[in-house]
Amino acid sequence: MKEYFDKAILLSKDLWFRLTVPKPLPPRVDDLGQLLPPPTPEEAKKILREAVTNYVSDGWNIEIENENDVVLGRKAKFHWIGKLVLFLVLLFIFAPLAIFYLIVVIVKGVTAKPARLHIWVDQAGRIQRR
User: Where is pLDDT greater, at 6 or 118?
Assistant: First the structure.
């Protein structure tokens, strides 16, 4: 019986390792399948600038900008339709619970933190995000 438990523990550790350890990114190749050389600093800045332009057009704001990386941010989204429907349902079922839910939603809306995204270009010329 102990052998089965030990084997199950080893399998779970192996699965955890496979799921949590990031896998290396494949090398950059051109249309013919040949490896591309690392980008020059000017090319890296151009790649970064194009990525930042795409994010800004999607609604992100530039918070911090350096030569090699950028921190973007945007206001947290507030999905009010679902909250309104739930509030109305709770109002008809049990009014004090609806009022408590309304207070919780207001507090969460006021204290919501903006979403942040750190973007940079690695040595291979790929955009990295965190």
Answer: 118
Listed by start position, the domains of the chain span 36-129
Separation between Cα atoms, residue 19 and residue 82, nearest integer Å: 33
Using a cut of 0.90, tell me whether the model's pTM lies above it: no
Nearest to 64 by CA among 114, 110, 108: 114
- As a whole number, mean pLDDT of residues 113-130 equals 88
| Cα distances (Å, whole numbers) of residue 55 to 18, 47, 60, 85, 124 | 31, 13, 6, 32, 21
Long-range contacts from 66-69, C-beta under 8 angstroms, 24+ separation: 68/44, 68/120, 68/121, 69/118, 69/119, 69/120
Residue 96 DSSP class: H
